[in-house]
Amino acid sequence: MGLAKRIIPCLDVDNGRVVKGVQFVNIRDAGDPVEIARRYDDQGADELVFLDITASSDNRETMVHVVEQVAGEVFIPLTVGGGIRKLEDIRRMLNAGADKVGINTAAVHNPEFVREAAERFGSQCIVVAIDAKQVADGKWEIFTHGGRKPTGLDAIDWARKMVSYGAGEILLTSMDRDGTRNGFDNRLNRAMSDAVDVPLIASGGVGNLDHLVAGITEGRADAVLAASIFHFGEYTVRQAKEHMAAAGIEMRL
Amino acid sequence: MNKVAVIDYGMGNLHSVAKALEHCGEAAEVIVTSDGDLIRSADRVVFPGVGAIRDCIQGLKDLGLDEVIREVARSKPLLAVCVGMQALMDHSVENQGVDCLGILPGRVASFQETFRQAAVHEHLKVPHMGWNQVHQTVAHPLWHGIRDHSRYYFVHSYYVQPTQQQQVMAVCDYGVPFAAAVGRDNVFAVQFHPEKSQHDGLTLYANFLRWNGAAL
């Protein structure tokens, strides 16, 4: 009995539509974020992450409406990432009904932004997203621009700094594993989880349900994030939670 | 008319609290307001809160809402949520110590300090974030239809230590046992977020919207 580990489905949203091949049986519209959010909520998702991948900032307003609609129907925590660069961006997302925002590249360019955001809105809603790539044995560096651009920043040191600036949670994506379906980089997850006192969300590489288990048991993550295994209808969130519970992990069922 | 006022004092996500109350379908009218008169004229009041306690108390005082909340606590059903719950106590250790509203006797302590003092060896993350089990320690109208040990969504680094044990309505465990809900008479307060706790959260809000303010 105690705090449950979390499963967090992630939805990529482009111009108000969920992309990256979401397929459900009996779903009216596979690209509608509200419909998909409702589906995951029914299946027992513990939280949802929406990643706004809209290229043009002119269309960012669309994401605000998506969040408003989802928040009016789905009563679990919602995190919005992508394009969060100013305090005003955060305020708009929180007012629309988001509970947390993910700050990624903007934190690398301007670390003070994280401090200001945490002071203004509280650490509980500031998730710092880190995209890390292994550069040597037991050493990971932060990359931006989808893993193309090195920053010279050590991922673990950076996370510690971000927590000291007020980050309330770390969302850690392994760029080596992202999209491979070979499982999380659990050496990275474990090094990160041991290094910071705030909760860790592991991301990147989930291809089956055992990978989710390993993220918790080997990676010591507090939450696991996955996209494709749920989107393609291979597994429901509920199946994933039951599998993790059967492996002895505390889950909300 | 069943009019519920959600107190707005500039502390974040009121949208989801208001939406969740509307979703329950029990309230004829949900108003989000910082107007003391509107709050006084409502049938029941929700006092939400996120963020730091100093800003919370200061925001209330700047708007003259500290006195309004004291009045409400004497006269009609009041539900305080998260930092709203903490604000009802006497004092919080957050932000180098802040005097709170003193509506319920007790203090607000820090998980980090408690873990240090109690030598909790397990690496427990702070904030306490996620779905944890809530054990109902008393029968109360707000628990109606909710299974004991149901999971609610928490996100907090500080927790309430009420002076009077009979005011504890539910407990939770995170390294140490702590009060997940406290109350007396027409006042009820929860550390978790019902508006983010799916069905069981909405049930609690629906119970509050039907509550006549009597403890049993």
Any overview of this molecule?
The complex is a heterodimer of chains A (253) and B (216). Chain A has 253 residues and is α/β, with parallel strands linked by helices. Chain A has a single domain (6-246), classed as TIM Barrel, CATH 3.20.20. Chain A has helices spanning 33-42, 60-71, 87-96, 105-109, 112-121, 155-164, 186-195, 209-217, 228-231, 237-246; strands at residues 6-14, 17-18, 48-52, 78-81, 100-103, 126-136, 139-144, 149-154, 169-174, 200-203, 223-226. An 8-stranded parallel β-barrel of chain A has the order 1-3-4-5-6-9-10-11, surrounded by 8 helices. The model of chain A has no long low-confidence stretch (mean pLDDT 92). In chain B, a hairpin with a 5-residue loop joins β5 (91-92) and β6. In chain B, the strands form 2 sheets. Chain B has a 9-stranded mixed sheet, with helices on both faces. The mean pLDDT of chain B is 94. Chain B is built from 7 helices and 13 strands. Helix content of chain B is 29%, strand content 31%. Chain B is an alpha/beta fold. Chain B has a single domain (3-210), classed as 3-Layer(aba) Sandwich (Rossmann fold). At the A-B interface, α3 of A face α1, β8, β9 and α7 of B.
Summarize this structure briefly:
The complex is a heterodimer of chains A (253) and B (216). Chain A has 253 residues and is of the alpha/beta class.
Strand percentage of chain B, roughly? Answer: 25-35%
H/E order of the elements of chain A? EEHEHEHEHHEEEHEHEHEHH
* Global morphology of chain B: globular
Number of domains of chain B: 1
CATH architecture of chain B: 3-Layer(aba) Sandwich
CATH fold-level name of chain A: TIM Barrel
Corresponding CATH superfamily of chain B: Class I glutamine amidotransferase (GATase) domain
Sheet having the most strands of chain B: 9 strands, mixed
| CATH homolog superfamily of chain A | Aldolase class I
What is the tally of beta strands of chain B? 13
In terms of per-residue confidence, which ranges of chain B show pLDDT below 50 for 5 or more consecutive residues?
A: none
Helix content of chain B: 25-40%
Tell me what portion of residues of chain A adopts beta-strand conformation.
Answer: 15-25%
What would the CATH topology of chain B be? Rossmann fold
Helix-strand makeup class of chain B: alpha/beta
CATH architectural type of chain A: Alpha-Beta Barrel
What's the Cα radius of gyration of chain A?
A: 17 Å
What count of structural domains of chain A?
1
